[in-house]
């Protein structure tokens, strides 16, 4: 459905450093003829067949509705419709990604923030003409859009750096941190597959569980260990003992030690 050139760029971006990945995607925000063609084709198909549904996933989050045009481990391209509102933003979101935004139906206006010593500080309001591409490095910057009295339609591309992505939410008035999360989509998918193998009782796949323990995120390492133990406790014990001795994260190390104690196999750490 999406043009071959865009599909190839999105796939290639997954293997590149952040700057190179953004460079591959940026031209598709500067020239959106492909998007106009996509809409025209799908509107014509729906006019010809009232039962036709475009093969694109849709989602909603509060006042924003998203049409997902492309999504891989590191790249997301969406057409987003934001309902009209004059309310100030309730939070400032630093997604950990580089975001390219282009308004499709009017000027783009929003409050800009920057992370300074762990706090979100406003650096003023921005205004961009229709068709301008706004690039925001949401590892350190954030843009809270103001739809105003009309719906705002934005074409957006979000490009993540390789590895885990660290997202933060801050209070827009005080700048204080409200919450944070680290996400590694590749390992999250692997964990879903491991859960399926565990449900199926696939003990012959124990090596897959052992290999998946190399995830860089401590919470995901423990999630893999739980699945491993549920599948085959005996096979998982050596890895659990190693985690109790060597795990870098203190909370996960304590969980591993407590689990060993509960099953009566606590190692000597001397």
From TrEMBL:
Determine the domain of life of the protein's source.
Bacteria
Name of this chain's protein: HEAT repeat domain-containing protein
Q: Which organism is it from?
A: Sphingobium cyanobacteriorum
**What taxonomic lineage is listed for the species of origin?**
Bacteria, Pseudomonadati, Pseudomonadota, Alphaproteobacteria, Sphingomonadales
